[in-house]
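Re: that backbone. Tokens:
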């Protein structure tokens, strides 16, 4: 790790090849090629004397996964982020919420679900993501239900269906990332899927599919006859 003094701040960089840094990658490949963490690193700009920018970005990403409607006050709780950076991040998030809407995106295949959740693939922990759908199978919203290994002690149907009930969703799709890179579902994955499908039947909310995914591929329970 190296520290470079810039004005009254320290920009802290890990030993990373120049071409692999977010600023160089966005210039070469475009913003679509960057992970969520790399996009946040560009928003944050630099670290400080105590923390590297990628560490700050990791913390901010975890906060966002748990609460997409993050407030400036919450952002300020992250070590390494001052008022100026928090204001810029809050403004960028609000602009995104105003300008970009998932409504109207149609889910007709597992690949459509993958498109909605693929950006969670870079997370270092398993994230169970729920895609809410209306009667025409258009996306209402997407949210993270739980973070951690999928098993019956972590995943409860109430976390999965609470927003679906309040937002009157007709169906849902669920997906979770495998940080290991292996997309084969575990026994716990299969058990959790069965419990969620049964809960959906009771509630009258159809579970269309469950994807296990990485940043390059996915496994569809529906396509493999496991739903």
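Recovered sequence:
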């Amino acid at each position: 790790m190296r520290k470079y003094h810039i004005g009254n701040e320290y920009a802290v960089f890990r030993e990373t090849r120049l071409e692999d840094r977010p600023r160089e990658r966005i210039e070469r490949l475009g913003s679509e090629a960057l992970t969520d963490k790399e996009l946040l690193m560009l928003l944050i700009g630099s670290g400080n004397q105590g923390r590297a920018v990628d560490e700050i970005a990791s913390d901010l990403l975890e906060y966002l996964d748990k609460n997409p409607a993050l407030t400036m006050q919450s952002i300020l709780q992250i070590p390494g982020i001052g008022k100026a950076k928090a204001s810029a991040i809050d403004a960028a998030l609000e602009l995104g919420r105003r300008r970009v809407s998932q409504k109207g995106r149609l889910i007709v295949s597992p690949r459509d679900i993958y498109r909605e959740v693929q950006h969670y693939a870079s997370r270092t922990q398993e994230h169970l993501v729920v895609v809410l759908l209306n009667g025409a199978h258009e996306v209402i919203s997407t949210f993270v239900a739980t973070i951690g290994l999928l098993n019956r002690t972590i995943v409860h149907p109430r976390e999965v269906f609470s927003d679906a009930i309040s937002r009157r969703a007709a169906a849902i799709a669920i997906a979770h990332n495998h940080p290991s890179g292996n997309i084969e579902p575990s026994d716990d994955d299969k058990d959790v899927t069965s419990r969620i499908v049964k809960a959906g039947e009771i509630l009258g909310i159809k579970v269309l599919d469950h994807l296990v995914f990485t940043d390059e591929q996915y496994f569809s329970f529906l396509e493999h006859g496991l739903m």
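The domain at 110-220 is CATH 3.40.140.10 (Cytidine Deaminase; domain 2). The first helix runs from residue 22 to 29.
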